[in-house]
Amino acid sequence: MREHNGSAEGRAGDPEPWRVCLVNSSGRALGAGMLLGESTVLTCAHVVQAAGEEALAGAHVLVRFVGLDGMPETLATVRPGCWVPPAEDGRGDIALLELAEAFPHVPGAPLVRLGAVRDRVVHTYGFPAPHRYGVWVNNAELAGPAGAGGEWIQLNSPLPGERVRRGFSGAGVIDKATGAVLGMVVTEYTDERAGLAYLIPVEVIVRHVPDVARWVGEPPRPSAGPLIVVIGDRDSAVRDGFLAQVRRERRGSRVAGERLAAIVDATGKTTGEVAEHVSAGISTGEVLTVLETNPEDVAVAVTGVEDARAPEEVLTDVVRPLVDKGATVLVQFSGPDSPGVRLARRWESERNARRLARLALLVDMVEHEEDRTRERAARLGSRVAVPGSSADLRLRLAALRSAGERIEPGRVRRALAATERDAEAARWALVRLYAELDALAARHDELHGRLRGYNAKATDAGLMEDEELAQLYRPAMAALTTRPDDPEAAAEPVERYVRAVRRRLEGA
Questions:
Q1: Average confidence score pLDDT of the chain
Q2: Is this model's pTM higher than 0.70 or not?
């Protein structure tokens, strides 16, 4: 077993360090999996079954991290209560593994809960023979619900090219636009001529293994920070309140004080000199540390960009690396046709496009939460009003999509941020409401099961004709039946009946 030092560093540029491979005792790849958190891996049950009867009986299976330097390996066992073997029709097929050692600094797979989505472009990474160390399938597409009970989503691989096939089971299916994990590959269609496979969406995984819910969240935020382009006189970035602009851009995030802000005039300077002035304005050692941990705390303004020795080099070699790491960077130009403006505007638009893709996924998630919350409320007979924010959010999303070049990118960026915040708030409000309704349903089922169980005991003891018990049973059942959304109203009638049955049985 290879050791690791707890570092989160993966291979250069690897955005998915959570990817793992399950390996048998001879070193053959059995399938894929995903680290969810520290010492928990999600995979398909049939991948574990492929390791043999010993693995099913509690023996260890070997897990290799393929997105980390040195590809560390560790042992794992099936977590108790988190084993759902495949049914005859293919449903289920989910397992959680407990690793023998924790990887606390490795980010887990960013699971998001959606319904049966279609037309999203995705990619995934599996271990088909003879690719011992894995291979990507890019630009696959979700086609819609499939499988028994509609539990799967059909996944079409582009042909010709690598397709999802044996060895990909357990692999995370990653939304290409946002990096969110929408589900897990479960099976392939065995016709070699078809690029056809199936995945289990996160929603279904959670239904089978509720423990997974704790790792379900929102799609990852774009790692790049805001790029603010200011067109105006050379002092406008400072006079209009640079840090005030940063705080507006970072609304909802913690912004540090001025010690992590620098304002640099690029006039007449080389790229190296601009970089030196940025470093002088912010302690180099400190800014490097903060960029790795809290990049939103770093803010830099570069004025007079068009009058630098090489404006586009300043943008490419100084501004872009800071933005890519997550810092907020303001660049000032004197006019719309200044050298470098078109490049900076293009970057603004590219970042807006990535945020727009994330917003679209968020709106899909809000709509899904609305649907499942309404369904839960209806099944419970609840009169609670389920918020319906998705229609308004879709209108705002459509307006942002149609903005194109007609609207200044900064305005689009701010509108995107506001709509994103509203979508996140709406989703979490629905998640909390669903949890409340789910708790009421669980309490109702608990009381209903208790009442029916003691009624069965009374029947077995020949107490069906006992009028006192009947008079206690009827109001308890009526309370559960007429107001299933208010189980506590039935709690005392149920307990009165239970106590009466116990007295009868103890006196029998």
A1: 86
A2: yes
